[in-house]
Amino acid sequence: MEDLKKKIVAEINDKEIVFSKSIKAGKRIYYLDVKKNRKDEMFLAITESKKVVLGEGDDSQVSFEKHKIFLYKEDFDKFMTGLTQAIEFINEVQGHAVKEEETAEIIQPEEIKIDIDFE
């Protein structure tokens, strides 16, 4: 009975999504989901999902940490202004250093090694 309730809730939540975009970034995936509330008003749900591996080898367990932010239409302008200012600040302070690091980490083709184990 409990499993049936979970499935019904999941189906209802999936129907709310009117647009979805996922962004893969290393061990993280960011989901941008536009949803509708009961009043048919849209809002943005931002979810960060981070893969976490506990243990090593056969004993390892994989789980995902999820964090959500709900952003409503009346806050879009303020949020975008703050986000833009924060990104510009980071680019001003660290922008040049990041570019130098990227060029220093160029891997030459002869350095690439692939280790595949077929069982």
UniProtKB/TrEMBL annotation:
Gene3D superfamilies listed in its UniProt record: 3.10.450.700
Highest taxon of the lineage: Bacteria
InterPro entries, A to Z: PUR-bd_fam
Keyword Transmembrane: no
Alphabetically ordered keywords of this record: DNA-binding
Gene Ontology molecular function: any one: RNA polymerase II transcription regulatory region sequence-specific DNA binding
Family: Belongs to the PUR DNA-binding protein family.
Name the UniProt record assigns to this protein: PUR family DNA/RNA-binding protein
Taxonomic classification: Bacteria, Pseudomonadati, Bacteroidota, Bacteroidia, Bacteroidales
